[in-house]
Design a protein that fits this description.
Helix 8 packs across helix 9, helix 9 packs parallel to helix 10 and helix 25 crosses helix 28. Among the domains are: 165 residues, Alpha-Beta Plaits (2-Layer Sandwich); 138 residues, Rossmann fold; 67 residues, no CATH class; 124 residues, no CATH class. The protein starts with 9 loop residues before the first strand and ends in a 12-residue tail after the last helix. It is α/β, with parallel strands linked by helices and 956 residues long. Helices cover 53% and strands 10% of the residues. This is Adenylate/guanylate cyclase domain-containing protein.
Length: 956
């Protein structure tokens, strides 16, 4: 440096510049680098000569300058950058990209140089800049005011410069002709991360967070899989916050959602890490070289937007350095060596054992309070809150959207409207199927060669925006908006995945929508009529179908919001009628199989076999009542006849039948009289169980008329045998008994007594009621083999139940105990819960008669609570149970009885049955007469079933 140069003193603005990637540029250009470097120096000196700047040092591609005026220094940098950008370089790759840093501080020159920390601060600011960028300190920004009208300084926030303990606020020079978009400054921030800051609280997921953290700490690549809206990103970000301190070189969040070209994935990661393209070198190589010596965690979000390109970048990163870990979120896995795939579960909808709310309900409570201006839901809405989260399968996005609807609806109203999941959750939002910009295709037309952006203009824009070369264009902003908006509605979220499916996988997804619950592989194959393994694997890999392994084989199911979307697509594709009719056929076949053993022969009906099918049968019934065959629906309803009443769902059964009648009227479909008679008879029984006695009689009469038209003796016997029920319910006991006797005699003459078994049981109940115990016992003894021969009825063990009642009336506790235990055990074993409640009441009477009043009160309480929950009519025994409870209350006293009864109401049906079955046999009790002096009791079945005599007259 010439000693004649005047060096400013006092407030001095120091400027450092150098060429970003100069080594790579020199390697690329070879001998041509020297003239480029020389031209770069000439341009910078020419701009500095026009200012008051003093050139202190030029070394290689670097300049060190000092200015007495901050505004002049900024002007010099602006002029230099414009000159560099407008100059005609030999090639585009040969253009040197110069970074510049400025700082203003107090300094005095000595012996032609500055020895001051302010110089080092300026150098660190320059080192934090990127090629083409001008950064300055807050001091320079303050002393450079006022700025020209077209020039401004953009505040980049506080940053810790290398070697300095304090934080410096950095500003970027913004002016026409200068680039604006740059990666974050290259500074030594104490907490190196760019994790997004959530605006809502994180709720629940304690177990999942712990498990995922363990996996990330133990493995270098962990992929969080899940359906759209499952909460993958939110959980991954929350976990990453905990891992910042254990990764010295940072935790970096990269969103792949807006990347529409495979070649841009490496650029997106590099931009987040503060890297820029190097001339003549693939971006991924620059990325790997940077990461090789660092210990950092890269969180790649929404990798399913570019799965293949993401997998390539991940594999290169992991192979390049052992200190790099990757946590990825996606709807499909990469299949890379060493990849640990962790499927995020839906939020728990079951409350924990400590009595707190489930995670799903807790999230809905939190978001509902926010939607209602801080007012939490009323405690009376708790049951409906649980209904909502169960209906939404605990899917976090669906719960968030549901909470937004609660600004308009009550929780109960929302729960009632969730049959239309998409319509309810997406109400009031724009159609997600339309692109954000009508002139911009969201889906890429064709890929470009990785690391060599080109082809479509919008692809070039995306590259440029990713690395900070230009501001985002309207097309780029449209892509970015579409990526953000994919979570604004459920439909947009699922569409994001649906568009990636091939024809076979898309068709299978649509057809699976007809199923209400999980299905096995054989069922999927039956549905398609083809091997489903390939398209099913695609759907599972993309998290659109959940595979749930069991010992007997995997089952497959869709979350309800995805099923609703697929159902909408099924209708749009014109495939709904074919798919749903096939589902009805499958449901009918499955229901019939529930009545058969492995050998195809009828077995004792167990209602437990129908429990898993209930959802599918309801879905099939819904189609039959709205778009399919009402006749097929009546057949399905007939298979659920006893199940509805034994599960306390008689009202639901009646409603389905009313809908099917309406469908018949709408379509004019011809239903054979025999099938109508069976439906009307079933309807009558449902109405009686639901306490609608007038309706019960009306449909019994309709059933009789239709059965007579059909000319089927067995059917007519079943219908007429049920006629006593409405008469009993209306208190016409004598008339009911007369009808029963006529039906039994007529059925015997027609050799269809088995079909009149219901009439036999009704008559036995009537005989028991008026004290004709011997005749009742004789009648039941004759009915035992008839019951045993009928698989659909023998599981109820009605003969044993009634013989137990007869024995109670006689005071024969031994016979009562044995018969009732047999009946209760069979009813519980075969799922006849409504009838099991009657048996529990009978066992309560037996316990009271045996001196165990506390157990009797508990059983009364359990039976009463269960029947109340099932909304069952009391039936012929109602008055008897009430009388016995009143007697027991007098015996025990109100307080003792109420305490034991209350304990019983807390018992589930299985617990109550276990309590009743554990009651000690009367023969084993202390003081039993059987073990008295030489006294022996008559065997119970002999005592209640004397010689069979038939005394029935009349005809039907």
């Amino acid at each position: 440096m010439s000693p004649r140069i005047h060096l400013p003193s006092g407030l001095v603005t120091f400027v450092f510049t150098d060429i970003e990637g100069s080594t790579r540029l020199a390697q690329l250009l070879g001998p041509d680098y020297r003239p480029v470097l020389r031209e770069h120096r000439r341009l910078l000196r020419r701009t500095i000569a026009a200012t008051e700047g003093a050139e202190l040092l030029t070394e290689g591609d670097s300049f060190f300058l000092a200015f007495p005026d901050a505004a002049a220094a900024l002007t010099a940098c602006l002029t230099a950058q414009r000159a560099l950008a407008s100059h005609e370089w030999p090639t585009a790759e040969a253009m040197p990209r110069v970074r510049m840093g400025l700082h203003t501080g107090w300094a005095e020159p000595r012996d032609g140089e500055y020895v001051s920390p302010e110089v080092h601060r300026a150098a660190r600011i320059a080192a934090a800049a990127h090629g083409g960028q001008v950064l300055c300190s807050a001091s320079t920004a303050r002393h450079a005011e006022p700025l020209p009208p077209d020039v401004s300084l953009h505040d980049l926030g506080l940053h810790r410069l290398r070697g300095f303990d304090d934080r410096e606020r950095l500003f970027q020079l913004v002016a026409p002709g200068l680039e604006r978009q740059f990666p974050r400054p290259r500074t030594a921030d104490a907490s190196a991360h760019n994790l997004p800051t959530p605006v809502t609280s994180f709720v629940g997921r304690h177990a999942e967070r712990t498990e995922l953290k363990r996996l990330v700490e133990a493995h270098r690549l962990v992929t969080v899989l899940g359906a759209g809206g499952a909460g993958k990103t939110r959980l991954a970000v929350e976990l990453a916050v905990d891992l910042v301190e254990s990764h010295p070189d940072g935790v970096w969040f990269v969103d792949i959602a807006a990347v529409t070209d495979p070649g841009l994935v490496a650029f997106e990661v590099a931009a987040v890490l503060g890297l820029r393209p190097e001339p003549g070198r693939p971006m991924v190589d620059t990325l790997v070289e940077y990461a090789a010596a660092r210990r950092m965690l890269v969180l790649l979000d929404t990798c399913d937007a570019q799965p293949a390109a993401s997998a390539d970048v991940i594999s290169r990163l992991l192979a390049g350095g052992v200190g790099v870990r990757v946590l990825a979120t996606s709807r499909e896995s990469f299949g890379l060596p060493g990849e640990v795939v962790w499927r995020i579960p839906s939020l728990s909808v079951d409350p924990p054992v400590d009595g707190a709310e489930s995670d799903a309900v807790a999230l809905l409570l939190d978001r509902t309070a926010a939607a209602r201006g801080g007012r939490p839901p009323d405690p009376g809405e708790s049951a409906d809150l649980r209904r909502v989260v169960r209906r939404l399968d605990g899917l976090p996005l669906a719960i968030e959207l549901a909470a937004a609807r609660l600004r308009v609806l009550s929780v109960g109203q929302l729960a009632e409207r969730l049959d239309d999941v998409l319509g309810t959750l997406d109400a009031g939002r724009a159609d997600p199927d339309s692109p954000a910009d009508p002139d911009w295709p969201v889906e890429p037309d064709s890929p470009v060669e990785p690391d060599r952006p080109g082809g479509r203009p919008e692809t070039v824009d995306l590259v440029a925006a990713a690395v900070g070369m230009v501001p985002p264009s309207p097309a780029v902003r449209a892509v970015q908006r579409s990526a953000t908006e994919r979570h604004l509605t459920m439909q947009a979220t699922v569409t994001w995945s649906y568009r990636t499916l091939g024809p076979r996988a898309a068709r299978l997804l649509r057809w699976l929508a007809v199923f209400a619950g999980p299905v096995d592989l054989a069922t999927v194959e039956w549905l398609l009529g083809d091997d489903p393994l390939d398209p099913l694997s695609v759907l599972v890999d993309k998290s659109m179908v959940l595979a749930e392994p069991h010992a007997s084989g995997s089952t497959y199911r869709m979350l309800d919001p995805i099923r609703a979307y697929a159902a909408r697509r099924l209708a749009e594709a014109g495939e709904e009628r074919s798919a749903r009719n096939r589902h009805v056929a499958w449901s009918t076949h499955a229901m019939e199989r529930a009545h058969l053993g492995p050998d195809g022969r009828p077995v004792t009906l167990s209602l437990y076999a129908l429990d898993p099918l209930a959802g599918e049968l309801r879905a099939a019934l819904r189609w039959c009542a709205t778009g399919g065959s009402a006749r097929a629906g009546l057949r399905l309803a007939g298979g659920l006849d006893q199940w509805w009443r034994e599960r306390g769902l008689a009202r639901e059964g009646r409603l389905w039948l009313f809908r099917l009648y309406g469908r018949i009227a709408e379509t004019g479909e011809r239903i054979p009289e025999a099938e109508l008679a069976a439906a009307y008879h079933m309807h009558s029984l449902h109405a009686g169980a639901d306490g609608e006695f007038a309706e019960e009689l009306r449909y019994s009469q309709r059933a009789e008329a239709a059965a007579r038209q059909a000319g089927d003796a067995g059917l007519l016997a079943r219908v007429l045998a049920g006629r006593a029920a409405p008469l009993v319910d209306m208190g016409q006991f004598a008339e009911a008994e007369r009808i029963c006797r006529e039906v039994i005699d007529w059925a015997s003459g027609q050799e269809v007594l088995g079909d009149a078994l219901f009439g036999v049981f009704s008559l036995a109940e009537l005989l028991w009621r008026r004290g004709a115990l011997d005749e009742a016992a004789e009648l039941l003894g004759a009915a035992r083999p008839v019951e045993a021969a009928r698989p659909v009825e023998r599981g109820r063990r009605s003969v044993d139940m009634l013989l137990g009642m007869v024995a109670l009336a006689r005071g024969d506790l031994i016979a009562a105990h044995e018969h009732l235990q047999v009946a209760l055990r069979s009813r519980m074993s075969h799922g006849f819960h409504g009838r099991a409640c009657d048996t529990l009441n009978a066992m309560a009477v037996r316990c009271a008669a045996g001196g165990d009043g506390l157990t009797a009160a508990r059983l009364f309480g359990a039976a009463g609570a269960t029947r109340a929950s099932m909304r069952c009519a009391p039936g012929i025994y109602g008055g008897y149970w009430a009388q016995r409870q009143g007697e027991l209350r007098q015996e025990l006293g109100d307080a003792t009885f109420d305490g034991a009864y209350g304990e019983g109401t807390e018992l589930g049906l299985e617990e109550a049955a276990a309590l009743a079955l554990a009651v000690e046999h009367p023969d084993l009790a202390v003081g039993s007469a059987r073990f008295g002096a030489g006294h022996a009791r008559v065997a119970p079945r002999q005592s209640v079933a004397p010689d069979r005599r038939r005394r029935h007259t009349g005809h039907a």
